[in-house]
Structure formats: structure tokens, C-alpha cells
Amino acid sequence: xxxxxxxxxxxxxxxxxxxxxxxxxxxxxxxxxxxxxxxxxxxxxxxxxxxxxxxxxxxxxxxxxxxxxxxxxxxxxxxxxxxxxxxxxxxxxxxxxxxxxxxxxxxxxxxxxxxxxxxxxxxxxxxxxxxxxxxxxxxxxxxxxxxxxxxxxxxxxxxxxxxxxxxxxxxxxxxxxxxxxxxxxxxxxxxxxxxxxxxxxxxxxxxxxxxxxxxxxxxxxxxxxxxxxxxxxxxxxxxxxxxxxxxxxxxxxxxxxxxxxxxxxxxxxxxxxxxxxxxxxxxxxxxxxxxxxxxxxxxxxxxxxxxxxxxxxxxxxxxxxxxxxxxxxxxxxxxxxxxxxxxxxxxxxxxxxxxxxxxxxxxxxxxxxxxxxxxxxxxxxxxxxxxxxxxxxxxxxxxxxxxxxxxxxxxxxxxxxxxxxxxxxxxxxxxxxxxxxxxxxxxxxxxxxxxxxxxxxxxxxxxxxxxxxxxxxxxxxxxxxxxxxxxxxxxxxxxxxxxxxxxxxxxxxxxxxxxxxxxxxxxxxxxxxxxxxxxxxxxxxxxxxxxxxxxxxxxxxxxxxxxxxxxxxxxxxxxxxxxxxxxxxxxxxxxxxxxxxxxxxxxxxxxxxxxxxxxxxxxxxxxxxxxxxxxxxxxxxxxxxxxxxxxxxxxxxxxxxxxxxxxxxxxxxxxxxxxxxxxxxxxxxxxxxxxxxxxxxxxxxxxxxxxxxxxxxxxxxxxxxxxxxxxxxxxxxxxxxxxxxxxxxxxxxxxxxxxxxxxxxxxxxxxxxxxxxxxxxxxxxxxxxxxxxxxxxxxxxxxxxxxxxxxxxxxxxxxxxxxxxxxxxxxxxxxxxxxxxxxxxxxxxxxxxxxxxxxxxxxxxxxxxxxxxxxxxxxxxxxxxxxxxxxxxxxxxxxxxxxxxxxxxxxxxxxxxxxxxxxxxxxxxxxxxxxxxxxxxxxxxxxxxxxxxxxxxxxxxxxxxxxxxxxxxxxxxxxxxxxxxxxxxxxxxxxxxxxxxxxxxxxxxxxxxxxxxxx
Length: 1015
What we know:
By secondary structure, this protein is mainly alpha-helical. Helices cover about 55% and strands about 5% of the residues. It has a seven-stranded mixed β-sheet, sandwiched between helices. The chain has a two-stranded parallel sheet with strand order 8-9. β10 (about 810-815) and β11 (about 820-825) form a beta hairpin. α36 (about 910-920) crosses α39 (about 955-975).
């Protein structure tokens, strides 16, 4: 009696029979058991017409009688993963299993994972045991010498350059009489030239050798079955990624032409063309490295195969040379193709037949002649007219693999002789007579393929859902069988132990499948353990066909019970008959009301998002903008004592949506779920999808005015209300940090306005200080005076603006009002120290230069320059007064008496006296200057004290002093020039009186000088 568990292939049978790479299939019986009819077409050479064919047509073409010139060439072309390898192996299996074909034809099959060395081994393997075997083997055993890999890779660089140069010469021959190349030829010639320089560039040649050429050499020299499992794949070649240089390579150190070419290779199409050109010459270059053409004893490949063909002719056999992928012959393509397409040179040679798989897009020169020799090519297509056709093929393919897996390798090989192509397929493991009624019912509930093979433990819905996700995203109608095997069959069947332990299906089996939020919420509401809820999600996603609406959910109670899952409340059994028809509305019936509803577009986008597919930049930006606006309206700005920011001041990129394009990396981001590096969205109950979908509908509909909008508004604000506390904390922290440089600037400005500030906590003086109208603008010739004056004046001009910036970050506002009626002193006291001024540059970009000028180091520098200049000017004034003081009173009196004609005094001695009086009455005191000097001499000047001292200086008055000193100086200079000529001209009592007056004036001047000089 067969039990249900026997329909679940064992782990050993999975390893033998359900492998995702055809080259890993170890038995012809397995190959034939899993075989499905293939979509094939014949394309005659130089035509676009296609003729539908079947596999047996390929076999008949390969074995047709009396091939021309003793050779038959069959080319099988298709996309990667389309089934070329399977078809080549199927040809071998048909020949080997048929006694007549097996007797007539001797097969040599080169697997796609073959190395150069193993190709040679495959060529001579059929001769093993023959007397001629040793002789031929000795000819070939050294054809692939044991070269040092690094040396061989270096040599390959040289050989590639030579082959690229040869290719360029061949391209130039296409110029013909016109003397011009086509655009295609010009591009190819350009790449040939630049690639030669690129692979020879000292800066990067080591990278190319170690990361690219070494792997090609390593696979070429590996012995049969020597490669690891990860290397059993297509033969190594150049890939576009090989042009990605690691960070430690400075490409800018290369030659200009290489730098320019590397920039050119940023274009994906240029990279692909460069790869195609390198790969087109790679085989010949590898052959050059290993000197493939030179065989022992001076024989050629043609002579060697002539000897092999002579041996088979004597045995009345023909040679069949099968190549799973033409690229596996890299290094030997030219000599072997020459042998395969060459005409038979002797009647003593057997016919040589060959079938070669060629991947789409690979068109090395060596294969073109082979295709021509065959007159065309068979095309393997995995493209279906409709997606439903592709899904049906997937279901039937799964059924065939499951049947093979149930039999297992040993049983399949025992049944091989009973298998006949075309008689209904391989024997079915399923026999309802061997099952109990219960198990028979279960098998029927899971369903059968079109060939009658049971699909348990899958069903059609599960297979199609998985196929749509892994193989046929969107409206794609092609898929790779290896993906179906890996992600549908292997991933499911390796969970047999979980089925036996009543823990199947786990949630991760449906990983990436778009499940609707409403479905998740319904499942989470079931009365069962959380573990069962997780399994129900996977069950609904797969075995129920992933319904998009709650009312579409149908679940078979028997399948639920088979998986030890609870029956879901309110769920109907799958429909097994046509639904009842509904009479169409008549002309008398009023049309149903048209509901204002959003589309389902956002549901699909966000389902993809939850399952790891990134949100587009456009959609993500729209979501961020809407979330930002909702947050602005939801935060109680008056409570957190921060002014409501404008949309421009609340950058939507602060809202970081994980797995979304765009948004940049601002200093601070709020993430809805996860963090910046998350690749998984945690939305077990579907609530996040509902909330985000609601916001998507708001965007689509331009508001909440639609059917169900009020409910979705509440759902959206569930998300917003979770985010608001984080944003409130962010804005409080942001405001507090920005207050630090603002308060420092405010203190400096207040002191420059003349307001005494005792410290940064002197808030009364800070906010209530002198902010009256700024002094009138003046222009000074002395730069240091201008600097200090500008500081004083701008401190008045910008005081109100700075005060507003501070209030915006700690003020108490009435609702949405713009006037702060109180200040949060507690926040002011918690302001951090030493926040750089440039962190708030964005707050006043136009006036930022002024705020930089009142930083401590800037203010100190300006003060030093000012004190230095003012000292120089006062000393100059002092020198003038000393001259007056030490002059001969008689001479000075005489000069003053006769100064009526001096233009400078304009005939009025009182003008000079006024200058003296101005100097004497100046408010610029020696004590003030001493304070400045003392303050700036410190290593760390006290910025507040510096501002206070500078605020005490009235520069407009000091400039008057400076100008009057200049008048006196110029007068004395003029006086000295005329001193001699006026000497002795005055006499008598009048002179004596004048002398007395001058002495008195000089005593006053001396007093003034004593107060001002020596500062």
C-alpha cells in the first residue's frame, strides 16, 4: 500500500532527480523522465523565416543518412537557461538508449563545464581499451602543458593584444572602394584600439590579470571533475563587471587615453561591446597561450581526428561530437570547428556528426562558419504567446519532475527499457488503487498535471503563484527552467521534515509574494496560535492563489487539514462549478451609481515594497511630502515652544522610507520601520501597508473626499501619530542646538551696541538691551576704524532679526500666531556649548558674513588692529604737541603774529585754537585704550568684555581728533619753513604780551598731550 508521504520525494531522490542545472543530471533515465516537449524552430541561413520543429527533428537532422562530404553540423541556439544543454543531452540519451543507434554511433559529449584539459580527455575517452588508444593519448597528453597560472595569465594579456590588433586589421579591410567604414565597424575598431591600451596599462594590468585572466587560465587548465561545485558552470569569459576597478586603483594615474576610455565604459552599451570584442578573440588567444595547434610528433588536429575516424570506420561506427555550449571549447574552437566542417579526405574515415549549443549573443567568428556548414540553426524558445501558456507549461514541468523524484534514480534506470518516446510519457508513480480512500482524496484535492502526475505537496495555484513571482514578473512570458527547479521545486521539497513534523508550510516559503494587507489582517484575526497564523499566510499566498480581495479567498478544508492548519472562519470552499449567471441590466434599470474610489495602484506598489522591491523616487517623494504636511499639522508647536516651520524649512527628506529610491542622506532621518540599511519591512499584520496605502490614496485623490476616505484618514493618522513624538523630539533638539551660536552672537551684538552684559544668562539685558535706530552710516579712510564702526552699526541693524530667530526656537506662541509672548528660559539654560556657527548658516545666508565677523577670533583680530592704529594716531598727535611745547616762544609768537597770510589758517588764529580745544576735550581716554590692550593680550579674549570696551569708543568723535591733529601738524610744518625769514621781526611791549599768551596756550596744549601721549 502506497502512503501519502511517498508522494513527497526523499532528500536523496531530490539530489539525484531534481537538480537545477542539466549538466548535473547523472543518468539518462532521469533526463528522459523529466523531459518535456520543447518549443523549437528551424531558421535557414540568411533568412528570417521560422519553421516549427520538435526534438525528434533535431535527432533526424543529426543522424540523416549520407551527410555531405562526410560531415553533419547541427547548431542549437537559445537564450541562457532555455534548455540547449538539455536538448544536447537528450540527443545523446536517445542514441544511447536505442540499440540500433547505440551500435552505429559513438558519442563524445563535451559538458559546458569542461576545461581545455578535460575536452581533450573527452575526445579520446571513447577509444579507451582500443590498441590505438595509447598512441593517440601520447599525442594529446601534453597538448595542455602545466603552465604557471600567473605566467600564463601574463602571456594571455600579450596574446589578447595581438588578437585585438589582428581584428582591427580585418575590420579595416571592410573599407572597400568607398574608403569608409560603417558605424558598426568604426565602433569596433575604436574598442579594439583602446582595449589594447587598457589591458596593457600598468596601473590596472595587475587587477585584470588577477581578477579576470587568472580565472580563465585556471579553468582552462583544470582536469576533468577538478572544479568545485561553484565552478561547474559556463566557461569563464569577460563580463561587464570586470571593468569595475576597485577603490585602491587610481585610474587617474593612467594615460590620458585609458582615462578617457574608462569614462567611456561607464555606458553599459559600451561595456557590453567591449566584452563582446574581447570574448570574440578570447578563444584564439587562449589557444595561443597553450599552443593548441602544436601537437606531438608534428601532427595537426586534422590528422589526429583522421586517425580517430579511421579507427571508428574500421568498427563500422560513426563519430557523434556533442557540445553543450560552444564556449566550453574556448582555446580549441578554431581547430575543432575546422575538423567538424572539413570535408572527409579519405574513404577510410567515418562520418563525423556534431551538434553544438550556442548561447544567444555569442557570435565569435569561429561559429559562423559552422552555422553556414549546417545550412541554418535550430532555435530553442522559452517564449510563449500568453502568460497562461507559460504557467501551464510550468505546472506540467513540475508534475514531471515530481514523478521522477518519486521513482528515484534506481527505479528510473530499471524502467528505462520500458520507456517509449511518445507513448504517453514516463510511467506514473500514481496508482489510485494503491492508496487508501483518504489519501486518494487528498491527492485529488492537490490536483494533477495534464500528464496525470500528482502535484502534491504543491497545487496549481501554488505553482502558478511562485512562477509568476520568480519566473514571470509583470507580463513576462518567458522563463528559465533552472529557476523553476531551484525556487519552486527544491525550495519546497527540501522542507519534507517540516511536513512530517506538522510545521509546513513555513512563512519564508512565500517570501517576496505580494500579500494584501486586508488578507494579513484577516489571518491575524483568526483564533489560533501565532505559529499557525504565520503558516496560514504562506498557505493563503500559495495554495489559495494569493487572493487580492478578502471575498476572493477560498481554502480547501482537506488541504488545510493535510498541513495541520486550522480551518479559517468565514472562508468558503474553492468553487468547483460555474458561478450562477446574472441577468444583464435592462434599459429600464437605472445605471448603478458611480463610486468615487481610488484605483488599486498603490496597493500593488506597497505590496511590492513590503516584499523587498524599492519604491520609485517619484512615488517615495510624493509619500514624503504628504507625510511631512500631515506631521506639520499634527505637532503641537505651541506646546513644544517652537515656531511652526514652513514647508521649505521642513525638508521632506527627513522622512526616510526604507527600501526607497531618492531622498539622499541628510544628517537626521526618521524611518517608518527599520533603519537606513534595512532590506526587510516588518508588517506582519498588514497595518503598515494599510496606513501607507491610505496616504497613497490621499495623493491619488487629492484629499480624503472619496468613498471610505474618512476611514483611511484615520488609518493614515495612526502612522503619523506614531511618528509625531520622534519629530517633536527632533525639532526640540534642533532648536536647542541652534540656540547656542545664536545666543553667542546676540551677546556680542548687545555689547557692541553698548548694553552691559554680565554673562550669557543675562537674558534681560540680552533681549531688552539697546535696539534703537542704528547710527548714521560713515565711511572712514582707515580700514581698522571702518571695521569696528561697521560692527557697531550692524549690531543695531540686525538686532531685531536675531531676536526673532531666538524666539522662534524658545518662544511661547499663541496658536499659529507669529508673536512670541514669553521665552522658555529652561531651554535657554540647557543650551549646549560650542556648537559651530556654520550650523546655522541657512538661517541668514545673506547676512552670514556679519555673524561670522563677530565670532571671538574675528572680533579679537579687529580689536587688535584698531588698538594698534589708534595708538599710532595718538602718538602722531603727541609729536605735534611736543613740537609746539618745545619751540621758541618768541619765534612762535612772531609766526603767529604774521600768520595772517597763511592760507591754511585762512587768517583766523581761532581756527587753530579750535583744533587744540577739540583734542583737549576728546572722550578718547587713555584708560579706555589700556583696557582694550589688556583684554586682547590674553590668550583667550573675553568676547563680552571686548564688545563692551569697543562700544565705549565714539569713532566719529575720534576721527575729529585725528583730523585736527592733521591740521596742527600741517600748520607746524608750514611754520617751520618760514621760521628763519620771520625771525627778529617782532619787538616791544606788544611782543611781550603775545609771548605770555602763547605760553598760556602751550601750557594747555601740554596738559592735553600728557593725557594722550604714551598710550
